[in-house]
């Protein structure tokens, strides 16, 4: 998750400034192509399989997800959205509630990069039912067939939306088209936990993703769906490759230090993600000053997010513990 988070922040830093040239831009683009938010969703599906397979109590699962995602999102978002409610023109109470609940994304599209939170909450709601569908019989081939049917079904729904409601689809495509990789993460979680992937099968899968990626890359300019599939298979190839590379080089002091940095970014990935986007949204609205340069508007949120993520994480833990003591959740 740390590599994905670093890639996201570098990509946003360049994107905020509309920079698309230079060595560091190429490096960040490389990181984005390797993992990016699809990597976060894949790992989320992988981890949630482990969580739900260890304890399939739906109420317990939802309560944990509320504490781990929704409450942190509220703690980080209420100050900004309340400020907008008071001072921003045309920001109604309805919009305030829609954005705090992330319903806004499913109605009007992405807002300040919070599509990731909206899609994650939706997938958390869906996971117990998807789990029942996928794993009601623990036989590998039927599970793989059901998983592929689910993934294809999600793509078909996206294509139908694109054909029938293109304007609406364009608003939610940033999130809805990435849902399949979450279910791939769930499937891989099942295979890894049950030790169904030998070294040879694992290597064959990775090689297969690479071959599919190469094949699709020749046609990705002609069709948006081929381009999306190409991006997904690219990440499914590079993610295990990165893990293998770090595993081979972990004895190097420099590599161990880099791994620690990535681990740190992974530990605070949610706080970093929301903080840097919220602060950028605040600055880009011109509330602080209209004279802040584009470079500062892009840089300040990154610095603030890195500085505040640890104390904010502790604040979130305090809020969660307080709520748990009240036995409300």
Can you walk through the features of this model?
The protein is mainly α and 329 residues long. The protein has a domain at 35-196. It has 15 helices and no strands. The protein has helices spanning 2-17, 23-34, 36-54, 58-87, 93-101, 103-108, 115-135, 140-164, 166-176, 179-193, 199-217, 224-249, 253-267, 269-284, 294-326. Helix 8 packs antiparallel against helix 10 (179-193). The longest helix is centred in the last third of the chain and has 33 residues, at 294-326. The two termini are 27 Å apart. The mean pLDDT is 85.
Key terms:
329 residues, mainly alpha, 15 helices, globular
Question: How is the topology of this model organized?
Answer:
Blueprint: H1 2-17, H2 23-34, H3 36-54, H4 58-87, H5 93-101, H6 103-108, H7 115-135, H8 140-164, H9 166-176, H10 179-193, H11 199-217, H12 224-249, H13 253-267, H14 269-284, H15 294-326
Radius of gyration: 20 Å
Task: Please tally the helical runs, counting DSSP H or I stretches of 4 or more residues.
Answer: 15
Low-confidence stretches: none
Q: Which H/E pattern describes the elements?
A: HHHHHHHHHHHHHHH
Spatial separation of the terminal alpha carbons? 27 Å
Largest sheet: none
Round the mean pLDDT to the nearest integer and report it.
Answer: 85
General form: globular
Strand content: under 5%
Percent in helix: over 70%
Question: Total number of β-strand segments?
Answer: 0
Indicate the structural class. mainly alpha
């Amino acid at each position: 998750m740390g590599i994905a988070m670093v890639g996201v922040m570098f990509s946003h830093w360049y994107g905020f400034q509309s920079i698309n040239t230079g060595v560091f831009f190429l490096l960040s683009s490389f990181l984005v192509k390797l993992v990016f938010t699809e990597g976060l969703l894949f790992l989320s599906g992988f981890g949630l399989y482990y969580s739900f397979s260890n304890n399939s109590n739906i109420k317990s699962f939802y309560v944990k997800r509320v504490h781990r995602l929704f409450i942190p999102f509220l703690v980080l978002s209420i100050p900004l959205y309340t400020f907008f409610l008071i001072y921003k023109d045309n920001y109604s109470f309805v919009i305030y509630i829609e954005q705090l609940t992330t319903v806004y994304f499913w109605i009007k599209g992405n807002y300040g990069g919070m599509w990731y939170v909206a899609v994650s909450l939706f997938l958390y709601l869906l996971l117990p039912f998807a789990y029942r569908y996928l794993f009601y019989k623990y036989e590998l081939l039927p599970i793989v067939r059901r998983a592929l049917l689910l993934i294809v079904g999600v793509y078909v729904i996206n294509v139908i939306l694109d054909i029938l409601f293109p304007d609406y689809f364009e608003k939610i495509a940033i999130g809805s088209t990435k849902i399949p990789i979450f279910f791939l993460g769930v499937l891989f979680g099942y295979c890894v936990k049950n030790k169904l992937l030998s070294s040879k099968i694992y290597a064959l899968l990775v090689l297969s993703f690479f071959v599919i990626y190469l094949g699709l890359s020749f046609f990705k300019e002609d069709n948006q769906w081929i381009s999306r599939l190409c991006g997904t298979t690219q990440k499914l190839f590079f993610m295990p490759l990165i893990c293998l590379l770090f595993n081979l080089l972990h004895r190097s002091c420099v590599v161990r230090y880099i791994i620690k940095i990535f681990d740190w970014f992974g530990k605070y990935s949610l706080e970093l993600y929301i903080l840097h986007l919220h602060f950028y949204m605040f600055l880009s609205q011109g509330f602080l000053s209209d004279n802040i340069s584009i470079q500062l508007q892009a840089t300040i949120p990154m610095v603030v997010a890195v500085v505040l993520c640890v104390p904010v994480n502790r604040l979130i833990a305090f809020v969660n513990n307080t709520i748990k003591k009240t036995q409300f959740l």
